[in-house]
Specification:
Order of helices and strands: EEEEEEHEEHHHHHHEEHEEH
Structural class: alpha/beta
CATH topology of the largest domain: Four Helix Bundle (Hemerythrin (Met), subunit A)
CATH class of the largest domain: Mainly Alpha
Distance between the termini: 22 Å
Strand content: 15-25%
CATH superfamily of the largest domain: CRISPR-associated endonuclease Cas1, C-terminal domain
Number of domains: 2
């Protein structure tokens, strides 16, 4: 198991990153703000108008540090990665499995079933935490429906059928997401999932944290030698990291959604930390983005017992652990892919 390293997020607009020996140096104007040894980094994320010298990109590529370029609000633009060091035989087997029709069905079933189960766990936890009996009743009823959907997904006869159950579970889950919200419910009311752009504060938070999770998953998949663009549940599309999106489905509820719920319910983010533009497009202010990233990095340090390995690991290593298990399954070392089930 590798050591949990750090992801450097550079969000100050106008910042310039350059190489200083074996370190990444961050300047704003003529003032040096930070120097980070490259060997302590897992990833580098540049938000908005942040410039990187060719030499710092070369340094990161030499040391296997992926560089992601995002808009100021977290929409993915591009990723810079060094030479692929993964086993070519592993990738070839990944491609064969994805091209073999329903041969990938067991993997898709595992991913969808884990997504439904993890969503149900989040809903049940919210039902236990609320003091409102009516909201608790609605949440428990939704959890019961999710349970039946998960059982159906586990028996899906085709990949398309499994995709259908995944869609049904997502609709059911987000239909009661508003009931899981506490704190300032008027300011963080949730009317359904919206993206590009998000149309309320809760959706803005969800989209932002999903961008953080996607970065970590893509990095994990590339680290173990898998191709993030070739997935099982999500179909291939130019520019789409289908395999990363597959893994996001099982990790989204326990890692990302729970963080968003915590930030809102504990009033750690304030309504004033968002900007509403024309058409109700809602964006995070810079102070809120920094606050959310700090909470995300802290959450990654929390430990839990991995349900398959039976070892205690930081939450931040869950994407890497799942990528290792998926690679081992594709190589033939496991009978099936043990998707992540949160307790």
């Amino acid at each position: 198991m590798r050591k949990l390293l750090n992801t450097l997020h550079v969000m100050t607009q106008g910042a310039y990153l350059h190489r200083d020996g074996e370190t990444v140096s961050v300047k704003v104007g003529q003032e040096q703000k930070l120097r980070v040894p490259v060997h302590t980094l897992e990833g580098l994320v540049c938000w908005g108008n942040v410039m990187c010298s060719p030499f710092v990109l070369s340094l990161c590529c030499e040391h296997g540090v992926g560089v992601s370029l995002l808009t100021e609000q977290g929409r993915f633009l591009a990723r810079v990665q060094g030479a692929v060091s993964g086993n070519v035989l592993l990738r070839r087997q990944q491609f064969r499995l994805c091209d073999a029709g329903d041969a990938a069905l067991p993997t898709v079933r595992a991913i969808v079933t884990a997504k439904v189960a993890n969503s149900r766990t989040v809903v049940l936890r919210a039902a236990r935490e609320t003091n409102d009996a009516d909201r608790a009743s609605l949440l428990r009823a939704a959890a019961a429906r999710l349970q039946w959907t998960g059982l159906d997904a586990a028996k899906a006869q085709t990949i398309d059928a499994a995709r259908g159950y995944e869609g049904l579970a997502g609709q059911e889950y987000f239909s009661v997401f508003n009931e899981m919200l506490g704190g300032d419910r008027a300011s963080f009311h949730f009317n359904g999932r919206s993206r590009r752009p998000p149309l309320d504060r809760t959706n803005a938070l969800l989209s932002f944290v999903y961008a953080l999770l996607r970065h970590d998953i893509e990095s994990a998949l590339e680290t173990v030698g898998l191709d993030p663009a070739v997935g099982f549940l999500h179909t291939d599309r130019p520019g789409r990291p289908s395999l990363a999106l597959d893994m996001m489905e099982e990790l989204r509820a326990p890692l990302a959604d729970r963080l968003v719920l915590t930030l809102i319910n504990r009033r750690q983010v304030q309504p004033s930390g968002f900007a509403v533009q024309d058409g109700n497009a809602t964006l995070l202010e810079e102070s809120t983005r920094k606050q959310v990233i700090t909470a995300w990095q802290q959450r990654k340090q929390e430990e839990m017992e991995h349900p398959f390995l039976r070892e205690r690991i930081p939450l931040g290593l869950v994407p890497y652990t799942q990528a290792l298990l998926l690679a081992r399954y594709i190589r033939g070392g496991l009978d099936g892919y043990p998707a992540f089930l949160w307790r």
